[in-house]
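Tokens in:
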């Protein structure tokens, strides 16, 4: 694993103003929308990102986890998509983890946030050719209450082809999270489903004592082309799902997920 400092803005001091937390995850597919690839003119990429920004403004998440989020890349307009979305959708805080850099490419996982995040780290998984590198970004928020709790928020993207590589990547993520020993909200494109005990998703949930919303539920596909549920939100026992929705907006080849979460008072952080 390779640790790199995430791209940071100036500090923001916002905080939660209500008892629930609204989170979202979306693989933005390099801003290509429904095109087969992202080799589009900059104005076309910007128009596609504008549609994503409109969804974010409508849904009003406190924190959104992004995957396939580009910095300045030759194939997608040569500008920072994360900063562009933050400005267009009105997020004062943005963080970008870079997992691919070189050959005039720059992209990875990211956060946009309305709340203060700290203790940031970006991790790139070990190379797994022929696919481009994947990774995750972690940031911590403090949820007010009696007592307040520290929660690690994760945006992760796993390998799309090989179960063995996903399992290795999940083991790296679990190792990192165990060192931090906090409650968790893990969001992202896992490229796998809750199918059996050997699924990377299932291993992560079991090892880190996490739960997903109706993991065996039907009609919750997030990757329509294959009719599969590849994108997930997993949370610690400290938290409960109030609402959970797979969005119908076609702003990427993936569908976004929006959840409302609340503290349940169990205060169990790590099993």
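Residues out:
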């Amino acid at each position: 694993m390779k640790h790199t400092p995430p791209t940071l803005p100036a500090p923001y001091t916002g905080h939660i103003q209500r008892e629930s937390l609204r989170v979202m995850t979306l693989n933005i597919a390099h801003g290509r929308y429904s095109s087969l690839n992202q080799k589009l003119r900059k104005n076309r990429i910007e128009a596609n990102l504008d549609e994503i920004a409109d969804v974010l403004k409508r849904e009003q998440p406190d924190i959104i986890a992004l995957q396939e989020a580009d910095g300045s890349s030759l194939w997608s307009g040569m500008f920072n998509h994360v900063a562009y979305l933050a400005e267009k959708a009105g997020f004062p805080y943005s963080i970008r983890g870079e997992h691919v850099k070189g050959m005039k490419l720059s992209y990875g996982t990211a956060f946009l946030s309305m709340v203060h995040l700290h203790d940031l780290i970006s991790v790139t998984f070990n190379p797994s050719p022929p696919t481009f590198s994947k990774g995750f970004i972690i940031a911590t928020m403090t949820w007010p209450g009696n007592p307040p709790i520290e929660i690690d928020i994760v945006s992760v993207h796993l390998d799309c082809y090989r179960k063995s590589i996903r399992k290795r990547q999940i083991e790296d993520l679990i190792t990192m999270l165990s060192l931090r020993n906090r409650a968790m909200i893990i969001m992202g494109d896992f490229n796998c489903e809750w199918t059996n005990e050997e699924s990377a998703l299932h291993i992560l949930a079991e090892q880190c004592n996490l739960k997903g919303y109706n993991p065996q539920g039907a009609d919750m596909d997030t990757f329509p082309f294959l009719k599969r549920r590849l994108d997930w939100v997993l949370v610690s026992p400290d938290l409960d799902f109030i609402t959970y929705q797979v969005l119908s907006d076609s702003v990427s080849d993936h569908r976004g997920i929006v959840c409302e979460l609340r503290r349940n008072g169990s205060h169990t952080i790590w099993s």
